[in-house]
Structure formats: structure tokens, C-alpha cells
Amino acid sequence: MARASKSPGRGSRAGAPPGRGGGARTAAPTRRRLGRTRAAQPPPRQSRTSGRYTAPIPRKVKRSPRWYPKLLLVLLLLGVLAIILNYIQVLPSSPTNWYVVGGMVSILVAALMATRYR
């Protein structure tokens, strides 16, 4: 069973409205904002914008030509094929570093083209 507390000022006095406190101690004066009530606050913004930046819709969507992805894949496969064929010594005068350099350049150009593909 709960024991009633005898300390003054901890709860509301019997018969007092809730939140008023009470008891033997007198409450210290509290600072109140004078002149401000809920009605005096400005209403929330009723704007249609969300506050975030939205990019404008482009008039014409940019697209890559039809030959662009085909050339990209040909360069990529040609570079890989040049390196592999040099490694297994099928190409004339292989093994030589020039086939490896050519294959790496071809792969690099294909990777750069891939970044520009739309």
C-alpha cells in the first residue's frame, strides 16, 4: 500500500485544481512572457513549395546516338582481347608491351565514353 508523503509543496492541495501546486510553501514568482499569447504568434506558412530545390524539367532530354554504346562495347572487348591474345602469344611478334598498352588505352577510352553515355 502506498504511503502518503508529508513533505509540503510536492503535490496539489486537496481541492485545488491540478497543476497549481500548493501546500505550506509559497511558490516563487515565475517569469512569464508578457504580451505573447498563442493567438499573437504568426500562423504557419501555407506555401505550396516544400523548401527544397527542384531541378527544372528539361525541354529536350539529351540522348546518346545509337552507335555510341556499340562503339563503347567494341572498344572494351577489343582492349581485353588484345591483352589476352598477347598473353597467349597468338598475335604477330608477341609478347610485346605495345599490345598491352594498346589494349589498356582502348579500355580507358571505353571507360571514359561510358561516363558520357546517356
Give a description of the structure.
- The chain has helices at residues 67-87, 97-116.
- It is mainly alpha-helical and 118 residues long.
- The chain has a domain at 67-116.
- The radius of gyration is 40 Å and the shape is elongated.
Give a nutshell description of this structure:
This protein has helices at residues 67-87, 97-116.
What labels describe this entry?
35% helix; 0% strand; elongated
| Multimerization status | single chain
Helix amount, in percent?
A: 25-40%
- How many DSSP H or I helices? 2
Order of helices and strands: HH
Distance between the termini: 76 Å
> How large is the share of residues in beta strands?
under 5%
DSSP, total strands: 0
Poorly predicted parts: none
Helices and strands: which structural class? mainly alpha
Shape verdict? elongated
The biggest sheet amounts to:
none
**Average pLDDT number:** 77
As a whole number of angstroms, the C-alpha radius of gyration is 40 Å
Please render the helix and strand layout as text:
Layout: H1 67-87, H2 97-116
Helix pairs in contact: 1-2
